[in-house]
Design brief:
Largest sheet of chain B: 6 strands, mixed
Oligomer: heterodimer
Shape of chain B: globular
Structural class of chain B: mainly beta
Radius of gyration of chain B: 14 Å
Distance between the termini of chain B: 41 Å
Shape of chain A: globular
Largest sheet of chain A: 7 strands, mixed
Largest interface: A-B, 27 and 26 residues
């Protein structure tokens, strides 16, 4: 069966520091991968998605970036965090090449920028 | 662009009773998919139920069922015999049928509280 992991689970970082959040998927090959952000009490905002290694599409311009160095690894990064980057970050995967497929989410990372 | 609207920010229900959460969407596509996700206090998003628009039969999963009204672009979730563990945020979502289009859109959510 497929599983998705995210780490760290919680992170507290000062403004201006770098960021690296990691997401890995097991039990499937060539998945579509997604990064979402969720502000407290709000809905999900899609940040990035990837349909293959090295293929990244950005939905929202910001100081965050994403990379996919391996088939089942998706990384969210920032060179300098802003206060507004605080939130709950969710990674998700879906079956590639099929429309309307369910997205399965990881446990999320709580990021607090101080 | 597709939009998803959940007009009930918060709802509550007594344990063992039935509750219905509303969702409407806007699209010009003829084929698409609709989802309900649950986000408990742990904040992990969990798929509750999925509906394919070309299927007229409403999807059901145990105590969870939907009322899909394609002409009205409505997709409500009914929870029967509510349990304390159903307390969560519920998100309605829409996805088109075109591969790689990446057009999944989420509503703002409804916070459901099940009272003992």
């Amino acid at each position: 069966s497929q599983t998705i992991h995210q780490w760290p689970a919680t992170l507290v970082q000062p403004v201006g520091s770098p960021l690296s959040l990691e997401c890995t998927v097991e039990g499937t090959s060539n998945p579509n991968l997604y990064w979402y952000r969720q502000a407290a009490g709000r809905g999900l905002q899609l940040l990035f998605y990837s349909v293959g290694i090295g293929q990244i599409s950005s939905e929202v311009p910001q100081n965050l970036s994403a990379s996919r160095p391996q088939d089942r690894q998706f990384i969210l990064s920032s060179k300098k965090l802003l206060l507004s980057d605080s939130g709950f970050y969710l990674c998700a995967w879906s079956v590639a090449g099929v429309g309307g497929e369910t997205q399965y989410f990881g446990p999320g990372t709580r990021l607090l920028v101080l | 662009a597709q939009t998803v609207t959940q007009s009930q920010p918060e709802m509550s229900v007594q344990e063992a009773e039935t509750v219905t959460l509303s969702c409407t969407y806007d699209t010009s596509e003829s084929n698409y998919y609709l989802f309900w996700y649950k986000q408990p206090p742990s904040r992990q998003m969990i798929l509750v139920i999925r509906q394919e628009a070309y299927k007229q039969q409403n999807a059901t999963e145990n105590r969870f069922s939907v009322n899909f009204q394609k002409a009205a672009k409505s997709f409500s979730l009914k929870i029967s015999d509510s349990q304390l563990g159903d307390t969560a945020m519920y998100f309605c979502a829409f996805s088109g049928a075109v591969p790689h289009n990446n057009d999944m859109r989420f509503g703002a959510g409804t916070r459901l509280t099940v009272k003992p």
